[in-house]
Each structure stands twice: as structure tokens, then as C-alpha cells.
Amino acid sequence: MESDKIRLEIVTPYRQVLDAEVDEVIAPGEEGQFGVLPGHTPFLSTIIVGELVYRQGNQLKYVAVSHGYAEVEYHRVTVLLDAAERPEEIDVARAEAARQRAESKLAQLSQDDHDYYETLAALDRAMNRLHFVRARAPQQKG
What we know:
Strand order of the largest sheet: 2-1-9-8-5
CATH topology of the largest domain: ATP Synthase, domain 1
Number of domains: 2
Mean pLDDT: 90
Helix content: 25-40%
């Protein structure tokens, strides 16, 4: 029996962020944003820091995502990520503090330093959280 829904699972090492039936998934892949509808051809993709969007009926919902992988099957999308948060889960003050720490540390590092790219990734995640929460949850206070 053909399903007209997609089972979307978003998982981090710490928790299952989402397990839901959805109509569409749009994710930030390394080669660009990609969309998935029911019956999509299976593939694997890397996920980059950004915004994953899913649609349930006429309602769009959003998840801030970090690096990871997506496995797309005909009626299932499994996304394994370093981190993922919904707008209401993001602590703006904590994200701002993380941004400031990363910027301060980067100012003292060169690209040859062992911690440079890890710190750059931390800055990228913090900036994504701040952008995401400001765009998706403007009523949230930090």
C-alpha cells in the first residue's frame, strides 16, 4: 500500500528530537538544499548547519540543525545529527555566550592551530541558533 506521508526521524547522540508523519521535508545538504516528498528515490546526503523544514498539512515547522547525515527512503527520512533544536528549545543567552566564546578564541588562533576548525564549527552552530531563533521565535526572550 502506497503511503502519502513520510516518516521523519531526527536523532542526535543525546535524544530523539522528532518522530512524526509529515508531508514534505526540506533539508540543508552539503550540495545545497534538498526536498523530499513521499515516494522519493532513496539517497544519502550530508547535512550542514542550517534549518530543516518539514510540512504537516499546511503548517511548516522548523528545526535548527548541525552537521550530520540524512538517509532518504521511499517513505522515510532518517536524520542523524550532532545537534538539533526546535525554536522554543533554544536559550538565546546561552547561544550568545557560545558565540562570544568562539569569537574570542578564534581571535587567538591561526588556521594551523589544532582547535581552529572545531572553534569555527562552534561559532557556526551558535550563529545558526541565534539566526534561527530570531527568525522563527521572535516572541522568545533570552
